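Agenda item 2: flavin-adenine dinucleotide complex prediction
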Amino acid sequence: MKPAPFKYLRARTVDEVTEALSAASGEGKIIAGGQSLMPMINFRLVKPAVLIDINNVPGLASIGLEGDRLRLGATVRHRMTATDPLVRDRVPIVHEAMHHVAHLTVRNRGTFCGSVCHADPAAEMPLMTLLLDGKIEAASVRGSRTIAAADFFAGALVNTLEPDEFVTSILIDTLSPDTGWAFKEFAKRHGDFALACVATTLRLRDGVAADVRFGMMGVGETPLRLGGVEALVEGRQVSAELLDEVASLLADTLEPNTDLHASADYRRRLAGKLARRALSDAWRRASASGD
Ligand code: FAD
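Presented output:
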């Protein structure tokens, strides 16, 4: 397939980007890595009047620590995230998740923020952003605003940005050294999108789980934070009995889709298995950090 005709603008500043988006009156599209957008344009699933390239805007390609948060700029590629020492040391769960993202060629171009904006319900970085209480920084000619990750994902491939806004960076929480974490994904082949995935973090306080975060992807229209599971695990020891309770809660509450790749029932059972492994590993890591 060939794309429908479009204009192309290589922006040099954040202001140029926001002015171009505003002038395009909803017909403009940002291109970052192009790894998801170009196939959609080639299939004419999207037909932007103008493509606004942010790759030459200075200041958007860095990863930096701000207090207990990490800021990832809009043109930080997956490969940068995968190899950055700050990511590896301060958010090891993101470092681990990166091993599951696509293949080398895609990781060389695709961006963290582009993946979050694309909002694929089976993509790793949207789940990481939700799990780590991400803050999405958006700019437009009207100024800038911060959107909590919990308010960003509106459906499969749908986010809550206004048509004239673009994401300049995303902040995610770092993990304290005593945090236990686990990322468990199942895909048919390495680099494929997940059939289901669990990501969790927890700490030990007085011998029981505290500050529990539990997220999933591949089992809904968006990445999910499962407050019911978090409440169930909080204040308890991770035992065989608790894992049974979590698996049965997931079986009762998840409503995944059936598609070409797996049935809803298969995904529900997979979710329970992955949850057991993830919580056990996170508990073990948290326990080991106190040794
Ligand atoms: P683009 O393709 O440039 O843009 C995607 C969308 O986001 C567009 O609508 C664009 O307008 C918008 N956008 C981009 N940046 C911004 C911004 N700063 N502000 C506002 N809107 C913006 N991903 C996974 O997570 N896991 C996988 O296993 C995986 N496998 C893949 C396999 C293949 C073969 C391919 C081609 C892709 C795969 N991907 C996978 C997707 C890949 O991670 C993409 O890089 C990512 O989804 C989009 O990032 P991008 O920078 O390429 O965004």
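Discussion summary: The chain has a mean pLDDT of 96.
Owner for follow-up: CH.
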